[in-house]
Amino acid sequence: MKWTRTLIQTLRETPADAEIESHKLLVRAGLVRKVAGGLYAYMPLGMRVLAKIQAIVREEMAAAGALEIVAPILQPAELWKTTGRWDAMGANMFRLRDRAEHEYALGPTAEEVFSFLAKGVVSSYRQLPLTIYQIQWKFRDETRPRFGLMRSKEFLMKDAYSFDVDADGADKSYWTMYHAYEKVFARCGLKAVPVQADGGDMGDSTTHEFHVLADAGEDGIAWCAKCGYAANLERAERATSVVSSAPCAALPEEVATPGARTIAEVSGFMGLGEDAFVKSLVYAVDGKCVMVCVPGDRDVNEVKLKRFLGAKELALADNSAVLAATGANAGFVGPVKPADAAMRIVADVSLKGAEGRVVGANKDGFHLRNVSLARDTAIAGADYADLTIVKAGDACPHCAAALEIKRGIEVGQVFKLGVKYSKAFNAVYKNDNLEEKLMIMGCYGIGVSRTLQAIIEQSHDKDGILWPDAVAPYRVVIELLDPGVAEVAKIAETLESALEARGVDTIVDDREERPGVKFKDADLIGFPVRVVVGAKGLAAGGVEIKRRCEDKSKTRVVAPGDAVAAVLECLGLGGEA
Ligand code: ATP
Ligand code: MG
């Protein structure tokens, strides 16, 4: 391909809205162009990368036995109402009506559509197991679309759905996809680590997310370097030793703590460490107040809390509700005799048996000290649970080594769904006794467009992108330095055709530009191999070949006739391509 015949527009300026490196490079290299917030057009170079990632996904899906179909983006509301997700999806789902006032969603995902399809096509156990997938545009009205393709309103997702006769079969399908995902990301040149994750309201609780570890990641990951335990902070656990403080003989006593509301303020005021305190927060949970107590130096994990309470809606209660429930304003509330004696109080498991703590007194401007949770509060034994967010240095739940906290970009997720969707749709098969049984499902997503950008985030330097060979827009760029000199242009052209004939996609930079400009663009876009063909170089002995990731000292000069072999070797294709 000739540079002047394609459409490449690199930018010198960094786009104003780009906060992270991969977003800047994506736009500067001209791979995509922003159309509006969270909406991008893929330009020819970006399109090539997207197509290569899709090709890898398709090959690995086929190897895993999954069948490709394509389902409509426009999904009738009835399907979503069948599972109750028409309401549950809330504002995240784009909704519209046709001229007859029928309601639709622009698919944010497709469990409903695929369950509906499976119900229609599967009748006998002989057709199972079945895994079907699509690579289709998805739409989500994200609260904060940002970071380019990382969190956009419209994005390309590969979504697969498995249907099995029983739990063993579903387990097998799950791990088949899990391993296929490992292969997909490895082939994209991406280091993506599987981490245990929270299943949200998807069904069964078994789920792994695949994360690209990067500072720009939006998710926190608890990581054990010793045993390999890795979990999203939403789900991560720690080994807690039950507190065995000596029984506190003294009875609770009020301490005036005027104006000291936060744990940091009271602990400063009283001269005690934050872990001497119990942090108490009142949540509005499906219309009712629930008090949540955690150690003073820890934060509430709302995902765990929601799951523990089996709540649909959960948020911090507003001021008036806090006052009514406890008798005090936030900052002075605690688990000892709140105004509403019937309010449920739950506490982090690490507080079980805690003695001699300081809690809010349910009276503005006061705290209570010498509090024994067992003696002085009405917290039931069953209301102690793991409710906090893991911190760096906490003990790994498997091997007790110190956990680290890393940042991750979620590029894919695999879920066991159980019968949540098949039940809603009555998606059944007949077993060999002709009895109807629900299919056991799994679902598996890869953010194809997010993966494209995650590759850049993981693989770049100060000059630009370092594409892994497998997904580079072109694997080779030929820098034609003297496009006006016929014999030089001829050599470049011969080399291009020879490489293309060996299956190596090649672009020839035939622009009338200074070499510096051309090299800068090539580095910015990040073609893995650069071949320089110029009159001066040829007179001095040949063409220059250099890998993008290596410095100038590694540049090789070869005779034009040896260039194809040298490029192939550079690409690790030594003679076989
Ligand atoms: P996130 O937690 O980042 O919002 P999610 O867990 O809601 O993502 P899934 O429903 O698991 O997303 O979708 C499958 C994959 O689609 C994700 O692993 C991610 O790679 C990708 N994805 C999800 N939302 C977006 C988005 N707004 N923009 C780009 N890719 C996305
Ligand atoms: Mg996910």
How would you characterize the overall build of this protein?
With 577 residues, the chain is of the alpha+beta class. The chain has three domains: 16-189 and 421-456, 2-Layer Sandwich (BirA Bifunctional Protein, domain 2); 253-385, YbaK/aminoacyl-tRNA synthetase-associated domain (YbaK protein), CATH 3.90.960.10; 474-570, Rossmann fold (3-Layer(aba) Sandwich), CATH 3.40.50.800. 27% of the residues lie in helices and 27% in strands. The protein has 16 helices and 31 strands. Strands 3, 7, 8, 9, 10, 11, 12, 21 and 24 form a nine-stranded mixed β-sheet that branches. A five-stranded mixed β-sheet has the order 16-14-15-17-20. Helix 1 (21-28) crosses helix 12, helix 2 (44-63) packs antiparallel against helix 6 and helix 2 crosses helix 12 (448-458). The longest helix is centred in the first third of the chain and has 21 residues, at 167-187. It starts with 20 loop residues before the first helix and ends in a 7-residue tail after the last helix. The model has no long low-confidence stretch (mean pLDDT 95).
